[in-house]
Write a structure and sequence with these properties.
The protein is of the alpha/beta class. The chain has 15 helices and 19 strands.
């Protein structure tokens, strides 16, 4: 598709994604869901400066097509999913570019079941955006839609999160890095209400500092904070709070693979790991699979992207799945990744087992992993290059069963991602360097 990738419509604000795109997306969605009744559509946004502009453009398009618009204001992506599916909205729209820099933005459209919008509808939106003329009628008179403040929806989501905690967090010293993003309006309130001694960073959004040296993409900030404050545990979210990474009491990172391992073992003990299976993506570390084998837990591997993880979980009824990046889905409680929910689940594991995360993860050995991106002019040609294929084959034969090479194209940017896993960092660097060298020589663009 031209505009919609693996995670919605994303681009630099007013460059790759402009206000007319947002307005026309609103016009289409308001008409599409309003053909048989007056559409009700809920909008959430993150803290980027451009999010306010896109909120206005979407609202104008939606109401011009006759839809009523309900504004959650600054809120996590999973809250939009929660509100849509629990309060009978036709669809929801989250304005966010997730972990990207502040100057990017995106539109994530969520269907009435709380899942990402079906590809066939995304294709129809694209056709309308690029259409030569506007064939959708404008609503008139009493049929024009209205815009409604709906902060109560976010408050209900916060209440839902609080209801999931099975025990008090009293006297637990917790650090939160809210990335100057969506979670700043939710996470601290939840942890405070559950009794934790909460310490925070990344809580001062100004429109241009989202993900800037903070949050899950810059986990080193939280590592320093946890050690400096002598905290029991720390959690870092991304810009729209659908991801969570953790830091244990030693200041070591608990990534998405480690979260899947810890929560998977815990759910298995409780008899709540459906099908005794965890859903991962091809990016998960080989160390996770070896640890799951030892724990007697099966696993599935999907393409990269939480929508593929979620599709597998829905089809087969699995209860836990996610990505190394910290996008974790607990199907008993949500239909999408939820950073704050993930942190609550990790708290439950730690409190129930009466052990620190550093102790609970000791049977998980994460192999060194190196990922390098190469900006290319032609992703398709780069992925099909024979020299690259030969270099990958040679590396995998040399690594045997103690490592692997993975090459994939970004779904949202003009990048080829080259990843190596091996027993040493030197081996990772050697093979990644060899393959990226070929890509840079033949396809690199500035």
């Amino acid at each position: 598709m031209k505009y919609f990738g693996t995670d919605g419509f994303r681009g630099e604000a007013n460059v790759g994604l402009n206000v007319m795109h947002a307005y026309k997306a609103g016009r289409f969605l308001g008409w599409y869901y309003g053909q048989e009744h007056k559409a009700r559509i809920v909008i959430g946004k993150d803290t980027r400066r451009s999010s306010y502009m896109f909120e206005d453009a979407l609202s104008a398009g939606l109401t011009a097509s006759g839809a009523d618009v309900y504004l959650l204001h600054v809120t996590p992506t999973p809250s939009v999913s929660y509100v849509v599916r629990t309060e009978q909205f036709d669809c929801g729209i989250m304005i966010s570019a997730s972990h990207n820099p502040y100057y990017d933005n995106g539109l994530k459209v969520i269907n009435g079941n709380g899942h990402k919008l079906e590809a066939e509808i995304e294709e129809k939106i694209e056709e309308y955006i690029d259409g030569p003329e506007d064939a959708i009628p404008f609503a008139v008179r009493e049929n024009i839609g209205c815009t409604i403040d709906y902060a109560i929806g976010r408050h209900r989501y916060i209440g839902y999160l609080m209801s999931l905690a099975t025990r008090s967090f009293k006297n637990i010293r917790v650090g939160l890095d809210c990335a100057n993003g969506s979670s700043y309006s939710v996470a601290k309130g939840v942890f405070d209400a559950l009794g934790a001694k909460t310490y925070t960073i990344g809580m001062e959004p100004d429109g241009t500092n989202i993900n800037d040296g903070c949050g899950s993409t810059h986990i080193e900030k939280l590592q320093e904070f946890v050690k400096e404050k002598n905290l029991d545990i720390g959690f870092a979210y991304d810009g729209d709070a659908d991801r969570c990474l953790a830091v244990d009491d030693n200041g070591d990172v608990i990534d998405g693979d480690a979260i899947l391992y810890l929560c998977g073992c815990y759910l298995k003990e409780k008899g709540e790991l459906n099908n005794n299976t965890i859903v991962t993506t091809v990016m998960s570390n080989i160390g996770l699979y070896k640890a799951l084998d030892k724990a007697g837990i099966a696993y599935e591997k999907t393409d990269v992207g939480d929508k593929y993880v979620n599709a597998n979980m829905m089809e087969y009824g699995h209860s836990l799945g996610g990505e190394q990046s910290g996008h974790i889905i607990f199907s008993k409680y949500a239909v999408t990744g939820d950073g704050v929910l993930t942190s609550l689940m990790l708290m439950e594991v730690m409190l129930e087992k009466k052990a620190k995360l550093s102790e609970l993860r000791k049977n998980l050995k994460i192999y060194p992993q190196l990922l390098k991106n190469v900006k290319v002019a032609d992703k398709k040609a780069a992925m099909e290059d024979q020299d690259v294929a030969a270099a990958v084959k040679e590396a995998e034969e040399a690594l045997g069963g103690n490592g692997r090479i993975l090459i994939r194209e970004s779904g949202t940017e003009p990048l080829i991602r080259v990843m190596a896993e091996a027993e040493t960092e030197e081996l990772c660097s050697k093979y990644v360097g060899r393959i990226t060298g070929i890509l840079e020589k033949k396809y690199k663009t500035e």
